[in-house]
Design brief:
Length: 156
């Protein structure tokens, strides 16, 4: 991981631990996390959660940014692909991603993380940027650490 990004994400994680300390409520912590990420990450225009539903759809959860798609089927778009494959998806240019769902035409790149607890998909964390190539492997590693802190601090 890039040394500067590693230090940046380590600092964010220390702040996140304190932000979430003493509260385990799902809605509260997802809301706090999305607001925290929106305030701390540069060059993003949307950050939030889609939560897994029994019908293999993702339903919009707490987020920061413009209005968003409400329901995304597994396997559709970047979020649905991450949910179906249970993989982190880094998309450098959303226009080149087959089946991309354009909830906000200003978004040009995207990173999505599956949230998996005890082998069960809980949902995904989705972050969009108005810049092509905004996210890389260092971001994936750093944000994964933050997401692990969220999971450890929350009753899902």
């Amino acid at each position: 991981m890039d040394t500067d990004k590693k230090s940046f994400y380590q600092l964010l994680n220390k702040q996140l631990v304190e932000l979430l300390r003493g509260e385990r409520n799902l809605l509260t912590n997802l809301s706090q996390f999305s607001a925290f990420m929106n305030a701390c990450l540069e060059d993003i225009n949307w950050v939030g959660f889609y939560l897994s539903q029994p019908d293999n759809d993702l339903l919009l959860g707490p987020f920061q940014g413009q209005v968003a798609c409400v329901r995304i089927p597994y396997g559709k778009g970047v979020c649905g692909t991450s949910a179906e494959n249970k993989t982190i998806e880094i998309v450098h240019d959303v226009d080149l991603f087959p089946g991309h769902i354009a909830c906000d035409s200003r978004s040009r790149s995207e990173i999505v993380f599956p949230i998996i607890i005890e082998d069960k998909l809980i949902g995904v964390l989705d972050i969009d940027s108005p810049s092509i190539g905004r996210f890389d492997q260092s971001d994936a590693e750093g944000i994964s650490i933050l997401l692990a802190t969220l999971i450890d601090s929350t009753d899902f």
